[in-house]
Amino acid sequence: MNASLPPVLVPQADPGASYRAQKAEIDAAIARALASGWYILGRECAAFETEFAAWQGAKRAVGVANGTDALALILRGLGIGPGDSVVTVSHTAVATVAAIEMVGAVPILVDIEPDTYTMDPAELEAVLAAPPPGVPPIRAVVPVHLYGQPAAIEAIVALANRHGVAVVEDCSQSHGARVGERTCGTLGRAAAFSLYPTKNLGALGDGGVLTTDDEALAERIAALRQYGWRQRYISDLPGVNSRLDEVQAAALRVKLAALDAANARRQAIAAAYDAAVAGSALAPPARRPGTTHVFHQYVLRCGDRARVQAFLRARGIATNIHYPVPVHLQPAYRGRVALGPSACRETEAVAASVLSLPMFPELTDAQVEAVCDALRALSG
Ligand SMILES: *Cc1c(COP(=O)(O)O)cnc(C)c1O
């Protein structure tokens, strides 16, 4: 840390602020869970699953330990594993790709649309028609609704259906995003949600949930998350341990009730940032027509990112980069993962120029104004 920097006045994210905003209710919910004497897969998790499914408009929700497991358990539930390939993007949290490899499947990483930062359907179409050499058959595609913006899901579902491939939505950044009137997470076979503390719906530790309209799939995954049990101590399937605990579920129920208002606040902050950068060299995030963006992140593109970041930081405004290195260039994956036809050219350009501004619902109006003033000063 440079000693001459001023203190951070506007953090980029602040999960503690989310807890403090509902402290009394969350503390009461946690106290209720603690007093119950039942800490794993009890009433709170069951109630959270019912409430989350209803809020989503899905038939079933299953609580699990984290978002990575949610994705992996869906793939396992669909019978996808060794000998199968799964298509996703390289411009995502590494967890998306890690989940595919966790089940023993082979990831194929395709490029993104440069304006929405989400999967380019033309790249998906190309790999479905002519898979990269040496990969096993493609069984699923995992679009990521990145930063809160729906991917081109209708085109992706149409292509997947034509090729008999399952669509598994990664909704870890898109709780509440919509395509028309339909909620992201109800548009494919199943959807995975991380409940990591900074997500739009965040626990006070790790958590995850998945949704599906397929009752048999939900039942299979509910067994897989607990050693493959359908009845206690008898494993029907070779399962894992990935459960959402009662304390997290109790807190999540409180936060779920406030999620629509929290997303609306994110959208209002995004509109203020849009106005502040209008006409400047900073490119505001595009909105896909007919969809609702829930701004997990507000991500600018700028030519001279280091300068912009330093300018804002000198005014006490923290920023972040999601993500500085595409998955296919990270040491664990470099040179060994199959790519789409463009070799992720747009992904690499985007990774070099994106910048995430402060974004969380508890930002005060004064903090938002400070960011807007700095953005105007930067371009003025
Ligand atoms: C956060 C995130 C995940 C993983 O979630 P964990 O709960 O950390 O396992 C997966 N995909 C995306 C796009 C994410 O942002």
UniProtKB/TrEMBL annotation:
<dbReference type="InterPro" id="IPR000653">
    <property type="entry name" value="DegT/StrS_aminotransferase"/>
</dbReference>
<dbReference type="Pfam" id="PF01041">
    <property type="entry name" value="DegT_DnrJ_EryC1"/>
</dbReference>
<comment type="similarity">
    <text>Belongs to the DegT/DnrJ/EryC1 family.</text>
</comment>
<keyword id="KW-0663">Pyridoxal phosphate</keyword>
<keyword id="KW-0032">Aminotransferase</keyword>
<keyword id="KW-0808">Transferase</keyword>
<dbReference type="GO" id="GO:0030170">
    <property type="term" value="F:pyridoxal phosphate binding"/>
</dbReference>
<protein>
    <submittedName>
        <fullName>DegT/DnrJ/EryC1/StrS family aminotransferase</fullName>
    </submittedName>
</protein>
<dbReference type="GO" id="GO:0008483">
    <property type="term" value="F:transaminase activity"/>
</dbReference>
<dbReference type="GO" id="GO:0000271">
    <property type="term" value="P:polysaccharide biosynthetic process"/>
</dbReference>
